[in-house]
Amino acid sequence: MQQNKWCFVLTLVYGTAVLVDWLFVPDGSEWQWVNFGLGQLKLAALFGLVALWSPRRWVFALLVIVWVALAVIGWPRTL
Q1: Which tens digit of pLDDT belongs to each residue from 50-63?
Q2: Interval 17-28: pLDDT, tens
Q3: For 51, which of 1, 6, 60, 78 could close a Cys bridge (C-beta 3.0–4.6 Å)?
Q4: Are 46 and 64 in contact (CB under 8 A)?
Q5: Is-contact 57 75, C-beta < 8 A?
């Protein structure tokens, strides 16, 4: 039962982030931090869903490492 609650919450977070990104946040350099934050939120929710359904603990650790690496690589450049 606890797993279903987290699945619903993570799906709701991911869907809300996608809708906000698609409907309200334009592309462009002035919005780069908002786009970065929404991208990280979507990625974290998606990785959370994968880790939730995985029976192995090492999958969670690997997803955290990948998430941090992608955040460092995709960090917005300021002018």
Answers
A1: 988 888 888 889 99
A2: 999 999 999 988
A3: 60
A4: no
A5: no
Structure token digits, residue 26: 């334009």
- Furthest CA-CA distance within the chain: 48
| 8-12, 25-29, 44-48, 69-73: range with lowest mean pLDDT | 25-29
Structure tokens at 18: 């996608």
Question: Which candidate, 6, 78, 77, 5, places its Cα nearest to that of 44?
Answer: 6
DSSP conformation letters of 24-76 = T---SGGGHHHHHHHHHHHHHHHHHHHHHH-S-HHHHHHHHHHHHHHHHHTPP
Residue 20 CB-density burial (10 A; 0-12 exposed, 13-18 middle, 19+ buried): middle
